[in-house]
Amino acid sequence: MHRYRSHTCGELRAADVDTDVRLSGWLHNRRDLGGILFIDLRDHHGLVQLVARPGTPANEALSHLTKETVVRIDGKVVSRGADNINPELPTGEIEVEVSAVEVLGAAEPLPFTINTEDGVNEERRLEYRFLDLRRERMHSNIMLRSAVIASIREKMTNLGFNELATPILSATSPEGARDFLVPSRLHAGKFYALPQAPQQFKQLLMIAGFDRYFQIAPCFRDEDARADRSPGEFYQLDMEMSFVEQEDVFQVIEKVMTDLFEEFGNGRHVTSPFPRIPFREAMLKYGSDKPDLRAKLELVDVSDVFEGSEFKAFAGKHVRALAVPATGDQPRKFFDGLGEYAVEQGAKGLAWVRVGEGLPDKAALTGPIAKFLTEENVKALAERLGLEPGHAIFFGAGEFDEVSKIMGAVRVEAAKRAGQFEENVFRFCWIVDFPMFEKNEDTGQIEFSHNPFSMPQGGLEALNTMDPLDILAWQYDIVCNGTELSSGAIRNHEPEVMYRAFEIAGYSNEDVEREFGGMLRAFKFGAPPHGGIAPGVDRIVMLLADEPNIRETIAFPLNGNAQDLLMGAPSEVDESRLKELHLSIRKPVVK
């Protein structure tokens, strides 16, 4: 018999009764029922119940061992009997009567329990991540991640893509976040940068003639953590295609995402095809460029309805309205609750009216601001919003971006509270037609609003003849259930367009040649039209696992302060190493 096991803990069944077996695993739980010990033994493959009779050496050995001790046991498979079957376990029809025990790895007292999802704080869990990963939920999440990545590789290969690696040590690039810098020992005072994305290299692969590229790419960005963003590093399905337009990229990714989410979504419906929503329309209707389409409600711009109004709260401001159909008589706490929610999002309050019988008569409206609305206001709102008796109307007023943020959040929350929100579904969409440039509100400088390597719609002519803030780019985001999975673009592949686009953003030709010399040089030697995208693997798994925090889908994540509490990173290095790297440390002065 094998030194450690003849079977795994998850594979024994009723057909194995009377079989002598050897198992190895962790002591998951122990119960003493009148001197008879029942032990749950766990390994990667599952869990099986052991039984140790009173007075046996096995009973004596197992009664004193700490949970999570690693043991090897010998024993015989016996039937539990019809009355004792555990239908929740694949091994629930049998148990193993233990005859011998060997301790393979002793365990100290545990800092928290493994066999329950108790309220251990995240810092403690990350400090002992190797224990946390033994929990059933965490183990399942990591195995889901492994299966998702394997499936992605298979799907991309079947679609004719080639998996190619790109460098980790490279030059700094303006991807929109801070680089992680690596000092060079051989070149004093110079630094490599860890890639924020393989952006330039995958474009160079297209220029080199590889046609269809992908990789499960590690990316590194020195940015703050969020619930859907891990600090430090993340992984993405990075892909690029030659001789394509926007729709060609969409067709590939829609197929991969639809198949992937159907495969691992546990029966949740995937809506397909994915709608294409222009950026400006998304901001107006949903208040966000990553709309959650499970919420069936839409915002409506009613600024013109109140233009010249004497109602000071709305006059001269951007006003967005949200009409919510009644699902029965909405109690006052429904309105107050949404008002409190809006305040949590940064609003000073939330104006509302309730619609009764008698439209378009003003008397049909009741609520805190009904008296401020004119007959003309009511008539216009009734027509614009398609009002019916029972509707509630919520209003947000102020600057465009502020109103969008607040009312976008209110839209989703109102849908959930009013029964206008779809559950158990994955609703994807494409956000398209992003602005190529935006104005920095602090400096007044024109800047790239998205990816600087994107092709402007209209090409060089648009750059030369249009107001930069009116130029759209062939840029797009893919969004699922309110989570942005990725940005992508049809790339600029023409040197003249690159020079001019960067000139508008304040770069001289010399700046472009210095910072993007490799890319620019490649463009001058026959570059094909190309484009791509890079959906985030961590976010895909987060959605499939229905986890609210992305760190629950990563084996060894950093905490919210970008620290590895298990390994102690970042850490200090000694003076000799600093000298070798031509560095000195200047710590901030603590006042």
UniProtKB/TrEMBL annotation:
Q: What does this protein do?
A: Catalyzes the attachment of L-aspartate to tRNA(Asp) in a two-step reaction: L-aspartate is first activated by ATP to form Asp-AMP and then transferred to the acceptor end of tRNA(Asp).
The record, for NCBIfam families, names: aspS_bact, PRK00476.1
One GO BP? aspartyl-tRNA aminoacylation
Q: Where is this region: Aspartate?
A: 199-202
Q: Which family does it belong to?
A: Belongs to the class-II aminoacyl-tRNA synthetase family. Type 1 subfamily.
Q: What species is this protein from?
A: Streptosporangium nondiastaticum
Stated name of the protein: Aspartate--tRNA ligase
Record-level Gene Ontology MF annotations: aspartate-tRNA ligase activity; ATP binding; nucleic acid binding
